[in-house]
Specification:
- This protein has 235 residues and is an alpha/beta fold.
- 54% of the residues lie in helices and 12% in strands.
- The protein has eleven helices and five strands, in the order αβαβαβαβαβαααααα.
- A five-stranded parallel beta sheet has the order 2-1-3-4-5.
Length: 235
């Protein structure tokens, strides 16, 4: 996946709907104002509970971009992000919090977050971060992302495959993997390869098992590391 061009970043921001999930009315109002001023269409959803079981069952508006307020425990955040991806499997999630420890950052990235911002950073960077993650990039401190990639490499060192070892993957698996690296959704992959979405999911599952990872994001990061492809990140 190549870095986003300036043209694609600007295009992705135009009138795009963004769902904001937070238990705090002031956060919802503040972020909604920032997004409206930047040309987005915010959809604010106040969370009535920050308990994991209730966040797991919460009805969430379906869109492509989410800003999630990390004002909850790690299990609760995991439950909410998992819920988001069940409603919108191809969504991009940016998490905003007071601060993030290394473990918290890695956990959020492992669950699929593409961006991490503190509340202070969000007031200045939110409008710039969203179009970047919308077109496949990451808005994460470079050291944090590098540490996350290293943690994946270390945990899968004994059972992952080499991306460039064609004999380990079938032709169709290589095609699906290449499409994943272009940041295509399952529906787009199915259309390109003239197969069903169910078959795409089957091949993705096989790829995850072969590489010894649990999520598509982990697989993509491994491929970037091994192919030395640049990933858009913040400094």
């Amino acid at each position: 996946m190549p870095p986003c061009s300036l043209k694609s970043v600007k295009k992705s921001a135009a009138k795009q709907q963004v769902c904001i999930l937070s238990p705090h009315p002031l956060v919802l109002a503040d972020f909604s104002r920032i997004l409206e001023d930047s040309g987005y269409k915010p959809v604010a959803r106040q969370l009535e509970s920050i308990l994991a079981p209730e966040l797991r069952r919460l009805s969430i508006p379906k869109t492509n971009l989410y800003v999630v307020d990390a004002h909850a425990s790690a299990p609760a955040m995991a439950a909410l992000i998992t819920n988001v991806f069940e409603h919108a499997p191809d969504a991009r999630v940016l998490v905003v919090g007071e601060k993030f420890t290394t473990d918290e950052s890695h956990s959020l990235l492992r669950h699929g977050a593409k961006g991490l911002l503190t509340y202070t950073e969000a007031r200045e960077q939110l409008a710039r971060a969203l179009p970047m993650i919308a077109c496949g990039g990451f808005w994460v401190p470079r050291a944090t992302l590098a540490g996350f990639v290293d943690s994946i490499l270390n945990s899968t060192r004994n059972n992952r495959l080499k991306v460039d070892s064609s004999s380990d993957l079938s032709r169709r698996e290589r095609e699906v993997l290449d499409a994943l690296l272009e940041n295509l959704a399952n529906k787009e992959i199915a259309s390109r390869l003239n197969i069903s979405e169910r078959t795409v999911k089957f091949h993705v599952s096989n790829l995850l098992n072969k590489f010894g990872v649990r999520r598509r994001a982990d697989l993509i990061l491994l491929c970037f590391q091994q192919r030395q492809v640049a990933v858009p990140v913040t400094t």
